[in-house]
């Protein structure tokens, strides 16, 4: 794993102005629901459907429309992507990230599991751990993260 604290991109002149890490919550940030309140396992993907899952009752789960492009751009820019969430269904949240397929690049037909975009995941039941945990995991000071 690349240490984001040592990240430098000599090809990108704005790299020094970009964060080294972007951390996303899951519920109502990446997708439009509270996963433990709105979905009933099992969740499944229909074939190779991009950015769409369904639960036992046919309720749809998908990233907000812009999210796949944002994840692809961050990955392309070598920015460390993290997920931090408190949820009563951490296994279901991880499963959803593992099942959702998204394009590797904007407009690309090449797809990957969404979970592969995240280098760090802190998904726990109950209270969210102190965000300072990312300093010990990523070796980045707070000011270099978004």
What is the structure about, briefly put?
This protein is α/β, with parallel strands linked by helices and 146 residues long. The protein is 21% helix and 18% strand. The protein has 4 helices and 7 strands, in the order E-H-E-E-H-E-H-E-E-E-H.
Fill in the CATH topology: Rossmann fold
Tell me, rounded to a whole number, the average pLDDT: 84
Spatially, the strands of the biggest sheet line up as: 1-4-7
Helices and strands: which structural class?
Answer: alpha/beta
Q: Which stretches are low in confidence, meaning pLDDT under 50 for 5 or more residues running?
A: none
The CATH superfamily is known as: HAD superfamily/HAD-like
| CATH C-level | Alpha Beta
Give the count of helical stretches.
4
Shape: globular
Helix and strand string, N-terminal first? EHEEHEHEEEH
Determine the fraction of residues in helical runs and give it as a percent range. Answer: 10-25%
- Proportion of residues in extended strands: 15-25%
Number of strands: 7
State the major sheet: 3 strands, parallel
Radius of gyration: 16 Å
Corresponding CATH architecture? 3-Layer(aba) Sandwich
Distance between the termini: 20 Å
| Number of structurally distinct domains | 1
